[in-house]
Amino acid sequence: MDSELSSKQLTTTDQNQSECVLTLEEMYEVAVNHYKQVRNDLAVSYEDRMNLVAYWRQVTRGKWEASKTKDVGYFDVIGNDRIKAWRALGDMGTEEAQQKFVDTLTICSAQLQGLMLERKTAKEETKRREREAREREERERREREERERMEEEERRRKEEEERLKQQQQLQAELEQQRQMPHPKTETPQRIENQNNSESQQENAVDQPDGSETSKTSANRAKFAVHQISADDFISEMKKDPDSCIVVGRGECVTVRVPTRADGSALYWEFATENFDIAFGLSFEWGYSVPSSSTTTSGSGPQSDAASGEGASKASNPDALTRVDPILPILRRNSHEQVISGRHKFPGAGVYLLQFDNSYSRVRSKTLYYRVYYTK
To answer: How far apart are CA 312 and CA 307, in angstroms?
Structure first.
């Protein structure tokens, strides 16, 4: 009775150790393997031995049927007794037969209980190692996420510091120019509206030979927020597939737009879907103005850029590689408002519209834009 009680204790479903107890299937497996090893030396009664065989057949073959046994003959006493014991089990289920096999062998063999405890201990050890492995993986995952979060915060902090540094540097340069007036030049100004409804940025561009004339007062870059919404602008631009650019993560796309003989200023408008993008404008000197009699809008300047590349170069070799910045590359909230601006031609050359997504390691940006000229 004590041995039978101990066997049942091995299947206790305690809430704290439920994952480490042996299942009936595992206990039956241990009992069968033990019986195969010690059946010849096992001190068990004849009746119990017949019952053990009957339980085993009930588990492996199911309910007794004549077709499942061989004709052992009238004089085969052991064979007939085994069939009789099997037949007596009737419709006994598999789990009940397994439980009876375990209980019977536990009473007959004192070693079985020790084997059960060893199997339970091995299972607990396996579960412990699996649990420790899961905990270690979870800890490493949290540490990795925390490290990535801190790196992202540090990256954003540096970007913000760089943006503020550029703004301060630009303001310092403008202030320095204000304090040094020139009779032939107009001081550049940068005006920002505090209500974020419209912003302008002006920066005078020198002539390619380095001289300053009164014409520089008209060469200003104006940067403002468009009045229509970004959604309406994007809906309009989707009608022209050439007006869409996908700027990949970590990439910077430059759109080259040449000046025109029949134009006097360049206008640009752009917006992005869902996320912002950085934008800057520069001017590359040294290209002659291509002759044309039409005003181009939408995506037309891209084709003009190709023709501009083939235009004749300026005679001054030093001017071929000179690029003057007009607007610094800063992040714009183009996903909320249409960003637009204009700049009067300082001379013959190519405008470089730079759409910078190098600060984003995860997202690509879908950009919709158009550029056009005025006479």
So the answer is: 10
> Are 204 and 306 part of one and the same domain?
yes
In angstroms and rounded to an integer, the radius of gyration of the C-alpha atoms of the chain is: 43
Q: Tell me the residue range of the domain where 38 lies.
A: 2-132
Q: Is the same domain home to 268 and 121?
A: no
Higher pLDDT, 95 or 14: 95
**Cα–Cα distance, 353 to 349 (Å, whole number):** 13
DSSP string, 62-127: -S--GGGS----TT-HHHHHHHHHHHHTTT--HHHHHHHHHHHHHHH-THHHHHHHHHHHHHHHHH
Place of tokens 């044309």: 292
Give residues with Cβ within 8 angstroms of 92, minimum separation 6.
Answer: 58, 63
CA distance 132 to 332: 48
Pull the structure tokens for residue 351: 């405008």
**63 in Cβ contact with 90 (< 8 Å):** yes
Predicted TM-score (pTM) of the model is 0.37
Burial 98-135 (b: 16+ CB within 10 A, else e): bbbbbbbbbbbbeebbeebeebbeebeeeeeeeeeeee
Q: Among the three residues 93, 109, 132, which one is the final residue of a domain in this structure? A: 132
Nearest partner of 24 among 122, 73, 131, 96, judged by Cα = 96
Contact 22, 118 (CB under 8 A): no
**125 φ, ψ (degrees, to nearest 5):** -65, -40
Amino acid 276: pLDDT: 94
In 109-229, alpha helices (H)? 111-179
Q: Which tokens is 233 given?
A: 């602008």
Q: Is residue 227, in this structure, part of any structural domain at all?
A: yes
Distance CA 65, CA 144 (A): 63
Which of 253, 221, 222 lies closest to 369 in space, CA to CA? 253
Q: With bands split at pLDDT 50, 70 and 90, how would you rate the model's confidence at 89?
A: confident
Q: Are residues 302 and 231 in the same domain?
A: yes
